[in-house]
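DUF2188 domain-containing protein
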Amino acid sequence: MSNPTTHIEVQPEHDGGWSVARNRIIDGYFNSLQAANDYASACAQRAKRAGLDVRLLIWPDEPPSDAAA
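Predicted structure tokens:
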């Protein structure tokens, strides 16, 4: 018997912040993308240690503001 997959994902919010959702339920809100990605990764590691199947979706780090110049 296989476990259902736990979905953990980082999502942008309309006010510029970032949320972390677990199975579509918001679990945390962050001003920093790095903090949101770190939290999502930690949640995924804990779920894997508990024997759950995990699908983790994080966003790439934001490029430095001068990278577009």
